C-alpha cells in the first residue's frame, strides 16, 4: 500500500479508471489513506446513477451532495432513473426539510419549491431530481431512463413540470439563473421521447450529443407536424455534433424510424439554409433492436433512409449502424445478411471517414448457413473513408477480404479494416497459416491494417475458468488476428 501511495495522481487516476464499474472497491480505497482519497473520490463520484428502485440510495445521494458540496463538483455524468411504481414510498422527513431549505436559499421561485416539496413528501423521483439538478454545477451528461412503458407519459409529464421551472428562459425570476446554469453545462443528453414536449426544455447552448430512445408508447409514436416542429426547433437551435437514434419498436412500426430521422435531418437542412444552425452533425448512430431486424427490414429501412437523405448525410464523418438481436431462424437470417450489401450504399457521404456496420448480439449455428453476399465495395464506399468495421457473414473471412481487396483501390484513404466473424469460423486458423501470405501482403502494400475478430456465442464453465478475461464487451469470446504497419506475420493468430 505504501508503494501505491507513492504513485503520482496521474497514474492513480489511470488505475482507478479500471475500477469505475466496481464502486465498492473504489469506496474502500477512499478509506485507505488521505493520499489516495482525492483521486479515488474523483473517479467514484464522476458517474452516479440515481435509481428509483433503491429509495435509500436515492436519499443518500441527495443528502451526501447537500452536506458535501465539494463532492457535488466532481459529478460529471448523472443517470436519472425514473420508476413510476415508486410513488407510494415516502422520503425521510429529517433530510427533506434540510433539502428544501437549501433549495430556498438558492433563490428558487416559490412555485418550484412547492412542487418539489410536494413530490418529495410523496416519495416521487421528480422531486429528488429537481434538487439534484440544482446541486450539480459540473454536470455534463444527463441520461434519463424511464421504466414501465405503460405509464411513461404520466411520469414524463411529472418530470416536465419540474424541468419547466429549472430550464425556463425567464431570468427575471429570482435565482432562476442558478438552476439554469446547471443545465447550460450539459453536453450529452440521453432521453426517451414518447412525450415530445419534453424536448423543448433542452435547448441547451453547450449540447453536443443527443441520444433519442424512440420508445413504442401507445399512439404517440407517429410524429405529427407539431412534434416534428418540436424536434426541428431543438436540432436547429443547438450545436449538436453527434446524433443517435435508438429504436426498440416492433417490426410493424419500422416506417416511423424513417419518419423521425427524416424529420431531424430535414430540420438540419432547413436550419442550414436559414443559417440558424451551428456546426452540423458529423456522427450519426442508427441502432435498431428486437423485432425490427428479424427479417432484414432494418437494413432495407436504412437503405431507404440513406437514399432519401443523401444531401443531409453528405456532411457526416462517422456513421455507425447497429442491428440488434437477429432471429435464429435460418431463412430470416439469410434475408438479413443478404441486405448488408444494400445497407452500405453510402457513396453520397462525401465526408465519411469512419463506417461501422455491427451486429450487436451473437447468433446461433444457423448464422453459418447464411449466403455470402457479393458486394462491390468500390462502388458503395465514399473515397474519403479511412476506417471500416463490418460484420463478416458466414465467418468466410478470406472471400470477404478478397472482395475488399478488389474494391479498395478506389478508396485511396482507407487505412484500417476490422471484420467480425462468429461461431468459431476464424478460430480454426488453418487458412491463416496456409494462405497467410498473398492477401495480407496485398493489404500491407496498400498500407491498410487489418483486424479480424472471431467470437463464440456461449462458453462452457471449463473454458470460462481457463480464460477468465473472456466475456468483455458484447462478445463472450474474442480472438484477434492483426496485420499492419507495426505487426509482422509472427503471432498473427492469438488469444486475448
TrEMBL record:
One of the Pfam families matching this protein, by short name: F-box-like
SUPFAM superfamilies found in the cross-reference section: F-box domain
Domain (F-box) ranges: 4-48
Protein name as it appears in the record: F-box domain-containing protein
Organism: Neocucurbitaria cava
Record lineage: Eukaryota, Fungi, Dikarya, Ascomycota, Pezizomycotina
Amino acid at each position: 500500500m505504501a508503494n501505491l501511495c507513492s504513485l503520482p495522481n496521474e497514474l492513480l487516476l489511470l488505475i482507478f479508471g479500471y475500477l469505475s464499474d466496481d464502486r465498492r472497491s473504489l469506496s474502500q480505497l477512499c478509506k485507505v489513506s488521505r493520499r489516495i482519497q482525492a483521486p479515488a473520490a474523483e473517479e467514484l463520484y464522476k458517474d452516479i446513477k440515481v435509481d428509483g428502485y433503491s429509495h435509500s440510495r436515492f436519499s443518500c445521494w441527495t443528502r451526501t451532495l447537500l452536506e458535501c458540496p465539494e463532492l457535488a463538483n466532481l459529478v460529471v455524468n448523472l443517470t436519472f432513473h425514473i420508476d413510476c411504481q415508486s410513488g407510494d414510498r415516502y422520503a425521510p422527513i429529517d433530510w427533506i426539510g434540510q433539502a428544501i431549505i437549501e433549495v430556498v436559499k438558492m433563490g428558487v421561485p416559490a412555485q418550484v419549491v412547492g412542487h418539489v416539496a410536494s413530490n418529495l413528501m410523496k416519495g416521487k423521483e421528480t422531486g429528488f431530481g429537481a434538487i439534484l439538478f440544482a446541486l450539480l454545477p459540473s454536470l455534463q451528461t444527463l441520461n434519463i431512463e424511464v421504466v414501465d412503458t405503460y405509464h411513461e407519459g404520466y411520469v414524463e409529464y411529472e418530470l416536465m413540470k419540474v424541468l419547466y421551472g429549472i430550464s425556463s428562459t425567464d431570468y427575471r425570476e429570482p435565482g432562476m439563473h442558478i438552476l439554469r446554469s446547471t443545465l447550460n453545462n450539459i453536453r450529452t443528453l440521453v432521453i426517451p421521447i414518447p412525450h415530445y414536449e419534453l424536448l423543448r426544455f433542452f435547448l441547451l447552448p453547450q449540447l453536443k450529443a443527443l441520444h433519442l430512445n424512440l420508445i413504442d408508447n401507445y399512439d404517440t409514436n407517429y410524429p405529427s407536424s407539431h412534434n416534428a416542429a418540436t424536434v426541428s426547433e431543438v436540432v436547429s437551435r443547438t450545436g449538436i455534433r453527434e446524433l443517435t437514434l435508438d429504436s426498440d419498436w416492433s417490426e410493424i412500426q419500422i416506417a416511423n424510424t424513417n419518419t423521425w430521422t427524416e424529420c431531424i435531418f430535414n430540420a438540419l437542412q432547413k436550419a442550414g439554409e436559414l443559417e440558424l444552425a451551428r456546426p452540423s452533425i458529423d456522427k450519426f448512430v442508427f441502432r435498431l433492436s428486437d423485432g425490427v431486424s428479424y427479417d432484414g427490414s432494418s437494413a432495407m429501412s436504412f437503405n431507404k433512409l440513406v437514399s432519401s437523405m443523401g444531401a443531409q448525410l453528405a456532411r457526416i464523418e462517422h456513421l455507425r449502424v447497429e442491428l440488434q438481436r437477429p432471429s435464429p431462424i435460418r431463412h430470416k437470417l439469410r434475408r438479413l445478411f443478404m441486405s448488408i450489401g444494400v445497407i452500405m450504399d453510402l457513396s453520397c457521404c462525401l465526408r465519411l471517414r469512419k463506417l461501422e456496420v455491427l451486429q450487436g448480439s451473437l447468433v446461433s449455428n444457423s448464422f453459418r448457413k447464411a449466403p455470402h453476399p457479393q458486394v462491390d465495395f468500390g462502388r458503395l464506399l465514399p473515397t474519403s473513408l479511412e476506417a471500416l468495421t463490418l460484420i463478416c457473414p458466414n465467418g468466410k473471412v478470406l472471400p470477404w477480404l478478397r472482395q475488399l481487396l478488389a474494391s479498395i483501390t478506389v478508396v485511396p484513404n482507407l487505412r484500417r479494416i476490422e471484420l467480425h466473424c462468429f461461431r468459431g469460423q476464424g478460430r480454426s486458423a488453418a487458412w491463416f497459416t496456409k494462405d497467410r501470405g498473398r492477401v495480407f501482403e496485398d493489404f500491407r502494400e496498400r498500407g491498410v491494417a487489418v483486424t479480424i475478430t472471431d467470437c463464440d456465442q456461449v462458453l462452457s464453465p471449463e473454458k470460462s475458468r481457463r480464460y477468465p478475461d473472456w466475456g468483455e464487451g458484447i462478445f463472450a469470446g474474442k480472438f484477434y488476428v492483426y496485420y499492419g504497419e507495426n505487426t509482422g506475420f509472427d503471432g498473427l493468430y492469438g488469444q486475448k
